[in-house]
Amino acid sequence: MALNYIWIFFVVAAFVIALLRGIFCGEWFVMQDIVNQTFDQARNGFEISLYLTGVLTLWLGIMRIGEAGGAVNVLSKLVSPFFTRIFPSIPKGHPVFGSIMMNLSANMLGLDNAATPMGLKAMGQLQELNNDKKTASNAQIMFLVLNTSGLTLIPITIMAYRTQCGAANPADIFLPLLLATFFSTLAGLIMVSIIQKINLLHPVTLAYILGISSIIGLMLWGASSMDSAQLEKWSKIVSSVILVGIIAIFVVMAAVKRVNVYDSFIEGAKDGFNTAIKIIPFLIAILVAVGMFRASGALGFIIDGLRNFFAIFLSDTRFVDALPTAFMKPLSGSGARGFMIESMQQFGADSFVGRLSCIFQGAADTTFYIIAVYFGSVGIKKTRYAVPCGLFADLAGVVAAIFIAYIFFG
Asked: In whole angstroms, what is the distance from residue 290 CA to residue 38 CA?
């Protein structure tokens, strides 16, 4: 599905629904809300891009130091056996493997500021291997879906919001969230592998998957021995140490190789600035369309319809009240965050709905935002099956979150 059709759907649907509400309900104010959203989201898109400019300039400069010093090459060799199986079109030992691994690692640790520039660096390297520059390659789709699945090991931000909303134990969603996001990532990997005919049962691939599962298990064991304050403290410390350690290792390795570290940084930083400029129109386009769709009230109609539908089969439909967070997350991270906070304020941070909203927030990522930014940065217009696979991973995370929430919180 091309971004063109997604954009058309959101804009047209928003106009039609607002028009119907005006004609039949006299709610013409909705049209003004939509107009306000177009300006607000255009401003938000530019502000986000402006912020990304500094982040991209910094981290792509650091990445260039890592490439020049050989650190990225070492990292790519470590993950090459697994990535060569799920990215069969990428030559063995290619530097992009290091960029992909760093991006996914940053996402898992909740280091969003570091993950985005690393991801854009990887997408640019994948674009160099792409024969059709306007159409997403298999490798680019696999990489994007792994990003949109939102695998998170340390949900610091969500725990912070739970603390602000008065949760007795802000970290009580840690294990449920980790399980839900793991299923989301696994579902995305399986879906893309089926389409691309990748054998995940190969001994090498299976060993890596089981190894990652074991690491997650060890982290859970360690987390279970800490209270929420200790967990939050040590998560921040570990994340910061890893981030600063990466920078230090890159600089030291480059210095040992007698690389001009400063010049390498400047060279990479220039690429970061240029990439940020390319993103602006793509990001504003998708944010405006999403804002119009939200302002039209379409999401509210969908929720009411789902509540009535599930009431036919289920006696307990409490999960429906948390679904706005799940539905909004693929469209807008800030919108989903707003729904999450609203749920905790309305139902209580320790309520079933409040906790489930938090799990939804962490069980997936902003699929359409990632598609707009990542593909937009390299000029991809034909996304092929990237959107359906990304949304499938999101759906798997949502379904898993519901079941897991009922198991943990009743």
From this structure: 9
In three-state secondary structure terms, 200 is coil
Tell me how far apart the alpha carbons of residues 122 and 135 are, in angstroms, rounded to a whole number: 16
DSSP 320-379: GGGHHHHHHTTT-HHHHHHHHHHHHHHH-TTSHHHHHHHHHHHHS--HHHHHHHHHHHHT
CA 346 – CA 219 distance, rounded (Å) = 32
Dihedral of the CA atoms 244, 250, 256, 260 (nearest 10)? -110
Which tokens is 403 given? 């079941």
Phi, psi angles (nearest 5°) of residue 110? 75, 20
Residues with Cβ within 8 Å of residue 94, at least 6 apart in sequence: 76, 125, 129
Query: How far is 337 from 324, CA to CA, in rounded Å?
Result: 10
Put residue 30 in one of left, alpha, beta given phi > 0 → left and psi -120 to 50 → alpha.
alpha
**Which one-letter amino acid corresponds to residue 139?**
A
Sign of the Cα pseudo-torsion (32, 9, 300, 180, in order): negative
Q: Is 330:368 a contact under the CB 8 Å cutoff?
A: yes
What are residue 93's phi and psi, to 5 degrees?
Answer: 80, 10
Structure tokens belonging to residue 79: 């993950």
Q: What does the alpha-carbon distance between residue 270 and residue 350 come to, in Å, rounded to a whole number?
A: 47
Structure tokens at 353: 């709905």
Tokens of 241: 């140490």
- Tens digits of per-residue pLDDT, 114-155? 677 778 888 999 999 999 999 999 999 999 998 887 676 667
Residue type, 198: I
Closest Cα to residue 391, out of 138, 178, 148, 150? 148
Structure pTM?
Answer: 0.73
Q: How many CB atoms lie within 10 A of CB 255?
A: 13
How far apart are alpha carbons 63 and 124 in whole angstroms?
A: 13
Alpha helices in 70-155 (DSSP H): 71-86, 96-108, 112-128, 138-148
pLDDT band at 341 (very low <50, low <70, confident <90, very high): confident
The string of pLDDT tens digits covering residues 154-212 is 676 677 778 778 888 787 787 788 788 888 988 999 999 999 999 988 898 889 888 87
Q: Which H or E run includes 28? A: none
Task: Mention every residue, 6+ apart, whose C-beta is less than 8 A from residue 126.
Answer: 90, 96, 137, 139, 140, 143, 378
Structure letter (DSSP) for residue 382? B
- Report d(CA 367, CA 330) in Å as an integer: 5
